[in-house]
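Tutorial sheet, problem 5. The three components below are modelled jointly, 314 residues in total.
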Amino acid sequence: MGRPPCCDKIGIKKGPWTPEEDIVLVSYIQEHGPGNWRSVPSNTGLMRCSKSCRLRWTNYLRPGIKRGNFTDHEEKMIIHLQALLGNRWAAIASYLPQRTDNDIKNYWNTHLKKKMNKNESGSDEGSVEQQEGHSSKSPSQPKGQWERRLQTDIKMAKQALSEALSLNKAATTHVLPDHTNPSNSHNTLCNNNLSYASSYENISRLLENWMKSPPNLTTQTSSSVYSFSNNNNMVTTTGSSSSEGAQSITNTTTTTTGTHYHGYDFLLTPSSSKYDAPQVPLTMLEKWLFDDGAAQCHENLLNMSLEESTEDLF
DNA sequence: AAGCCCCCCAACCGCGCGCAA
DNA sequence: ATTGCGCGCGGTTGGGGGGCT
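Model answer (structure tokens):
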């Protein structure tokens, strides 16, 4: 049986999102949280399919997304992780939580692939195609390499979890995520929570920018549904009060134009939002993690010699 | 200035997986 | 065990912008 389309194609809007749509989506998610995407179009009146809404949120509107040029460090991370994990962009993105898988994928396809090609062109072995053949689905990969890669994956995951948990605790003391510190860049779990927790303020900025220069609002069916008046306890911060991390984000904002909108470079700030990361009691898993990996967990992945680790693997 | 070409990236598409009934 | 549904992922596309002639 053929899979039905995720949404009725009739009347579904496609193409670039408008600021109006963004506002509607953000305000809805602000109220209900991300998820249950199926119901988003019907509840918001957006003429978009659920997938489009989810994609727009995860790739663009979600707080904590860092835009702009990739740093050398991020680039190395991507190269390293791509060699490790193959084209599993979501997995790679989990180690660079400020970047979306789409961003990483695009960056790889547009920059790194060429770069790698250039680098590899001098040597006979290891073309990009070969590297991409390292995909997790590659059947030709020797079992030994698989096991070692798996172990590396497990180690990395444990480290990420460890740091996430430790930072979860730190979050209660409103420790700012330091974007200048690469060791924070792979706190997947923590960052997810923290990023989302920060949405409240970020959205307020979004809305503030929106209010400053509102385009011609035509009949916006649902913008009135989600009243912004409940934002009266939002912190109406501007760039001047942004954190150091936020500053770095702002500074690296790409010069998108046309149908893309400025002012969406969300800030990562501590939050008093209702979406604050819940305090999770230590589970058995966490105990195991700390017992087993405490000594190694903070041995920073990023300090690993990339060459060393990849040589070891291949 | 105009036309062409290339690059970039936001968004779309199709598929696989997990879960519930 | 089967089916239907929702979600997430990876590959691909196409439109806009910038550079070059």
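Marking note: Chain A is about 50% helix and 0% strand. Full credit if you identified this.
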